[in-house]
Amino acid sequence: SDIDKVAQLVQFGKYKSTKMFRYYVRLPHKIKGLFPGNQSFKTSATAFQYVLRILGTHPVAKFNVLYFECERRVELFANVEDHEVYYGLKELYLKDHKTIDSATFNKAKRPADNICPECGSKLVIHKRKTRIFRFASETLPTEKGGIEGDTIQSAEVKNTQYPEFKKWCPPFLIKKDNITVRNSTLTLFDPNGNTMFGDLKYTGADIMIEFSGYSQTVQAGAGVQRLSCWCDEEPPLDFYEEQFPRLLAEDGDMILTLTPANGLTFTYDDIFEKAKLILRTPTICKYYLEEEGREVKEVEHTDSDHDIAVIQASTDDNPTLSPDVVEAMYNEMPDPDGTTIATRRHGIFKQATGRIFKDMNYNVHMIDPRTYGIGSEYINGLTIARTFDFHPANPHAIIWAGISSTDEIFVYREWGPSPDKWVISRLCREMARMSSFEKYVCNLIDPLANTPNQETGKTTVELMNESFLQLKKDGVGMGGYWEPFNTKGEVGRDAIKERLHNSLKVERPFNNTVTEDGRTKQLPTIWIFKDCREAARSLKQWRLESWVSNRQLATRDRKEKHAEKWSHFCTALEGLLKDKRFRPRRESLKPAQREYKRFQGGRR
After folding, report:
1. What is the end-to-end Cα distance of the chain in Å, rounded?
2. Which of 231, 263, 403, 533 has the fewest C-beta atoms under 10 angstroms from its C-beta?
3. Does residue 586 fall inside a structural domain?
4. What is the 3-state secondary structure (H, E, C) of 345-367?
5. Same domain, 185 and 234
6. 432 has pLDDT over 80
7. Residue 49 in 3-state DSSP?
8. Is residue 595 part of a domain?
9. Which of 250, 275, 267, 248 is nearest to 127 (CA)?
């Protein structure tokens, strides 16, 4: 009955909203990362906002199962396959609308006359292609803990998403809750089904909450579209990347909730550092100022072009915990290296992640050459070279780089062709075409390419040199003699580390002249053009091998072997920096300087 439904909404009404929660539910971003301390608000806030989506009252209209939109928006997205038509319609649409999504409404904000307030067209109900939300974590709800008794935690201990969602979801919405090993899906009634909204009738259909475990194969969750995906704790990278194709049809979003700790891999690099918006509570801002001497803003807009928003909050920000309880909890927690409290209480990324190049920062090292007036004429004035990490099976990694007379390296072109699709002759022709008439001081390749082919007796290096010689004769490119680069020692790797560190110091190209101890010198730096995404990502992601599970970190030292994944562009760059020919070009002395040397007794 309606009375029973009202009674069941009591628990839902007990949710304590905070300022940060109100920020959170208004974020329209494609990716949202919640990185707070333990027992802050991430799990409850995320579960609660999914209930809002099901009820149709989430502030970001398009995230609701039910939402209303201008019929012209429907027409626009009906033409996405024809790009020319789509962009033409988009231009017209934006003349009458503030943004693509400004003419979307949840059921509370829907205009009573069902007329778009921006253009005067009719509103329609958005037609959903799927009604499935995915909740993913390390374990499924069926993997039960050993706690007995009638408590919220007794049924499902390892999986926190399931009990937290059921805590806030009104029971009358649950149609089927018989989760088993074979079927880990929670089926809900559509609360708005068979309802009239003015002259619009909404029929509705069942809504599914699909629980998924990280241990399941990636392909096990492929194929079906979802409205949204919530990952609790860091998932494996391949699992994370596989979710995005599943969200395309409904313009869905990804939510990642975790407390930074040991064993994290890509989260800091690919989410936190790429965030377009960072929201912090006053407690977090105070921590940064008092403990690290950094002044940060509660609302920070970066220059990132990634549609990512990040939230940082502390355990202290939990409105259900008293300050005394919080202090008592962390006073008893051992903190031998000074990082445990920072991560567990405040959600600060402190732990070393095993990254090889820890200073690599997308926002600093990746540059738009147009911003600095760097064009082909400037590149041709550098000392330039090509370097090639060759592979018989994995994609190759090829880098074009130049070094200026002031000791700044610019990685200005990259290519990662698959050896399955590009035979050597065709690959050489394409490289020659890409290189045009650039002249290189050296052309270096992995010594693996110097291994003779069992059938022809020739090495890949010999075949490439023959091809480039013939291409030069044919007027394609300037040729190039390829030779193996040095793979011994870590001189190249150390040089990359030094340059990355110096780039952080000077912050931008053409700013590397510094004065130290009364002497003026130029710091060696490195900058990666923004189109060289794989080279930048490799420098960011290459790390030491890690143990399969975080539990192994508790009893074993970190592995000291370098992982093969993400190593290829790094190896190519290392090989180049070991070569003595790739050095800053010495500027010739001006006539006045030569005369001065002669006058001082120099050779005439």
Report:
1. 107
2. 533
3. no
4. HHCCCCCCCCECCCCCCHHHHEE
5. yes
6. yes
7. helix
8. no
9. 250
Buried b (16+ CB within 10 A) or exposed e, 509-542: beebeeeeeeeeebbbbbbbbeebebbbbbbbbb
Cα–Cα distance, 492 to 483 (Å, whole number): 17
> What does the radius of gyration of the chain's CA atoms come to, in whole angstroms?
29
Judge whether 79 lies within some domain: no
Rounded to an integer, the average pLDDT of 308-312 is 95
Has residue 135 got a pLDDT over 50?
yes
pLDDT value of position 294: 80
β-partners of residue 255 are 32, 230
Q: Is 50 in the same domain as 20? A: yes
User: Which CATH number goes with the domain that contains 425?
Assistant: 3.30.420.280
d(Cα 113, Cα 123) in Å, to the nearest integer? 9
Tokens of 129: 């292609």
Determine contact, residues 539/567, Cβ cutoff 8 Å. no
Whether the per-residue pLDDT at 201 is higher than 50: the answer is: yes
pLDDT in tens, 73-124: 999 999 988 999 999 999 999 999 999 999 999 999 999 999 999 999 999 9
Same-domain status, 312 and 384? no
Cα–Cα distance for residue pair 374/410, rounded to 1 Å = 10
Tell whether 148 is covered by a domain: yes
Same domain? For 314 and 273 the reply is yes
Is 309 in the same domain as 381?
no
Q: How far is CA 544 from CA 279, 303, 355, 495, 564, in A?
A: 31, 30, 6, 18, 9
Interatomic CA distance for residues 523 and 495, integer angstroms: 12
- Domain that residue 236 falls in: 2-67+126-346
CB 30 within 8 A of CB 275: no
The number of distinct structural domains making up the chain is 2
pLDDT surpasses 90 at 423: yes
